[in-house]
Fold each of these.
Amino acid sequence: MHIADITAFYARESGGVKRYLHAKRDWLARHRAFRHTLVVPGPRHTVAPPGTLYLPSIPLPNSAGYRLPAGRWKAREVLLAAKPDVIEAGDPYFYASAAVDAALDLGIPALAFCHSDIHTLVRRWLGALPAQAVARYLRWMYARFDRVLAASNVVLEHLIEIGVSNAARQPLGVDTAVFHPNRRDEELRSRLGIAPNSRLLVFAGRFAAEKNLWVLEQAVRTLGPPYVLLAIGSGPHPPRGTNVIILPFQADASALAALLASADALVHAGDQETFGLIVLEAMACGIPVIGPDAGGVRELIDDAVGLRVRPKDPAALAAAIDSLFSADLTHLGGAARARVVRHYDWDVVMPNIIAHYRAAQHRRTAPRLDVPPVREWGKP
């Protein structure tokens, strides 16, 4: 099976979508029955990595490397030339129509993976009328796909709410060989210039407003020493404080895993996450997680692997952090690791994604039972 992924959500410092696509590529490469092609916006006159095709695009300033697609017709031509057996579109915007059109021309299924809840964001920031327009567009666009995948129940419920009837829940996965407790670096605290007995909290992700990093900042300020927040990423809204340490975005998964495994717990305040891949990556590294009781994150954690707290409440987060360190962190981290290995390892998740592809292929080739068969000319 030849699988083509196309998305505009791909940049130098992009997070969960890019890690999903690269993990999928690596998993498919280890299985001879599959071939993978990644179609993404890229710079002109630049040779793409093997298995990747760049599309014409314009760089977006101050966007950590994101690019604006220059047109969908070229995307359709590239997909047609690649001749995949199934196409997955990673966004419903610039390339979605190209994916559907190419799939129709090739006679193959097209699936969409809903990585962002744009309808909820528009409703929150712009109001009901613009949100209704977005809902109509999404309902129309997603109806053209054979199936729409949603990583969490919260996204699935929103899709159903706006009338997308062909949606199904499909969680993302983690490479548990890369994100592993044995990545722990006992020298990290020394290199960071903090005491060996510091209680090291970690956050990794884009420093954007929707991540609510001010909540982490205030909670850590309230707690004071020996708590230290290690914030990994880039963006316009980094957390600040005397007990906050900033490290740049980590493009290498092994380097990110080493930082996660070397911390005591992951803290996350984003209440608009459609999934929360970094939560699973931290759990795979054997550390507990404290996150908001909202969004996709709330579906990944409970008292067995960490704590859920009231969103946007620094005092509640500070109390939860203090409470967590009264528990057995080793036991919580071990339970977190076991959960990810059991339910979210790519060897568990990817066969389910392949099953969606095969089901869509079957529906495309199955005979229609509600119409009579076409008879050849001159035969009864």
Amino acid sequence: MDKQERHGGGLVWPMILIAAGVVFLLNNLGLVSWGVWGTLWRFWPVLLIAAGLEILIGRRSLWGSALVALLLVAALVAAIAWGMPRGGATTVARTEEINLPLGDAQRGRVEISFGTGRLHITALPESAGLVEGTVDLGRDEELVQEFHQTGGVARVQLSSRGTWRRGISTSWDDEKVWDLRLNRDVPLELEISMGVGQADLDLTYLNLTNLKLEGGVGRADVTLPRRGRVQAEVDGGVGEITITIPAGMAARIRVDGGLGGVKVSQPYERRGDEYISPDYQTATDRVELDIDGGVGRITIRQGAGE
């Protein structure tokens, strides 16, 4: 049988994995912004084109497969170049103040759908409103706020509209910032849907009962509350998520690993697909953490003592 006929494996999907690994490496080295994934995501139809070309000509010969792979690499380079900043223009068009009251509500629910840039969340210094802070917005981007109170529960929804515009830039990581502070006294449910960029979620002093984090594209550092009973769910995205569990907070961690893998450090004992603190069953303060890994890497570790 001719060598040409025996060629059944393609180069397209291996090249996709290699290219993704190279971009991750450049991200980690700080040479390319995590925001580049926003541009690459917009170019996803190229994968369909490459897969179709692989079926038509790639499977017939090694040279055909190599040609398709070369075209895919060229498209990747073009996408990264297309998304690089132009002219050094700032990405911040305006800044809006956030000041949402708690009123007489006894509980709170906060939902944040983040666009691009850096997201910083921490606790208010003392009991005041429900959510306070500032939000940077880009050109043609608008902030959507929804607030209502029913049955003693104050509900807030903050989302970005009009984020995906031409010109993904490395300046996102430094310039566009959502700086939000949440009430630390009332029980809170928090749901965050990440976009593209970086997140620093310091939930140490929040009275959090439920947390849901949908990872986006980029990096997120999450510090869980140091007190209470918390139900947390994390869906990994594309990038890196580091979760710190404060010392003194027991944990039971369930892991459904993704492509990038989930790393759980000591002192948690592994039992099948679970990692658990030795004193979990008797602990007053504890968290149940469900992890669904994504394409990137998720690291879970215990924080230093107070």
